[in-house]
Amino acid sequence: MIPVVLPTYGRADVAFERGEGAYLWSSDGRRFLDFGAGVAVTNLGHCHPKLVETLQNQAAKLWHVSNHYTITGQEKVAAKLVANSFADTVFFCNSGAEANECAIKMARRYQFTRGQGQRNQIICASGAFHGRTLGTIAAGGQEKYLEGFEPRLPGFVHVPFGNMNAMRDALSEHTAAILVEPVQGESGVIPGDPDYLRRLRAAADEFGALLVFDEVQTGMGRTAKLFAYEHAGVTPDIMSLAKGLGGGFPVGACLATEKAAAGMGAGTHGSTFGGNPLAMAVTESVLDCMLEAGFMDKVAANAALLRQRLEALCARFPAVIEEVRGLGMMIGLKCKGSNIEMVTRLRNNGLLLIPAGDNVARLLPPLIIGEAEIAEALTILEKTFAEVTP
Asked: Rounded CA gap, 146 and 360, in Å?
């Protein structure tokens, strides 16, 4: 008999009922150090006092109105995102997949309004993950997500991530845009070389294409800068955001330059719930916290400390961990044995990580962790590594 909840997830046998900061408590009373953050979502930790207060206050005023009317919260949040990014304009939605759908539509619309309607192909990177809609699984191109959902949507070309020669070979008179993640998260926390990202910018300009960065996972401080593109000193034309943008409240956004968004007039796109008053109130509070003086400096310092201690620990267990990689507070441990078994053992010992491709266990802790939480995580990791050492 099928469960009442559609069984599309391989769930662990644990249910959480309370959270505070970097910790979660299960229904049976166990405490866990959460270095998964809801897959890079609760970037300010669980039940952040400012976010709780903001949500409670807004819930007593107004939850939802249609986008047929002006929503002042959208204007306030968009202004803050624009002031702190490359963008000139923002569309609000509910998830990362929706943000990427908007980005794809915008790129094609841009070429169409320039009289280049034949330029409708999006060049993507192999191993990418852009969401679970029919459009975004086609953009990701991974067979495990496409299987059983034929016919796959056309218009996407895939080349190896980091291979600039293959990218240039794929560019043509049919190319609308290049879409990449600055760090491939689901595929195993694989950072894009800054020079590669800069050369993508140059190639897009040369061929008249737009450059789209999927920062659904890397954005909102995850890489120790507000946005990952800042590390390379290069800006995209369009960028998708979600996950950490709402600190746990469902919200996504598609940011763009005026040039890239020029074709997106009234009626070209929309969302019933996107940018509603509840989402905007919480998102504004998230931004306010992250834009406080010294916040990102502290994240960068703690990220460096975590990486340093992880590398030292993993060097002691070469039979368990093959490689430490990542950027900022987005770190992957490439396991010698099963990453699923490793994540399970760590959970049993009180530390929550997230599995990824290439046999990687991901550390995606809340950005508010400090030395105490780092030390506790390393103690659990050391204990677990010792348990599985051959």
From this structure: 22
Helices (H), 229-370: 229-232, 277-290, 295-315, 339-348
Report CA-CA distances (Å) from 182 to 118, 197, 362: 27, 7, 16
Locate 95 and state its tokens.
């998830």
What's the pTM value of the predicted model, to 2 decimals? 0.97
Q: 382 Cβ partners below 8 Å, 6+ apart?
A: 313
Residues forming a β-bridge with 351: 33
**139 alpha-carbon distance from chain centroid:** 16
Sequential DSSP letters for 61-94: T-----TTS--HHHHHHHHHHHHTSS-SEEEEES
Q: Enter the tokens of residue 370.
A: 């400090």
Q: Please tell me the distance from the alpha carbon of residue 220 to that of residue 43, in angstroms, as a whole number.
A: 8
Residues forming a β-bridge with 218: none
Report the catalytic residues.
Answer: 129, 214, 243
Going from the N-terminus, what domains does the chain have, and what CATH number goes with each?
A: 16-47+294-388 (3.90.1150.10), 50-290 (3.40.640.10)
Mean pLDDT of 184-189: 97
Give the DSSP letter of residue 390: -
CA dihedral 333, 339, 343, 344 (to 10 degrees): -160
CA–CA–CA angle 142, 144, 150 (5° rounding)? 85
- Structure tokens that stand for 203 in this block: 């190639």
Query: Which whole number is the average pLDDT over 127-136?
Result: 97
In angstroms, the CA 152 to CA 150 distance is 5
Question: 163: how many CB neighbours lie within 10 A of its CB?
Answer: 14
Decide: 362 and 356 in contact? Cβ < 8 Å: yes
- Residue 224 pLDDT > 90, yes or no? yes
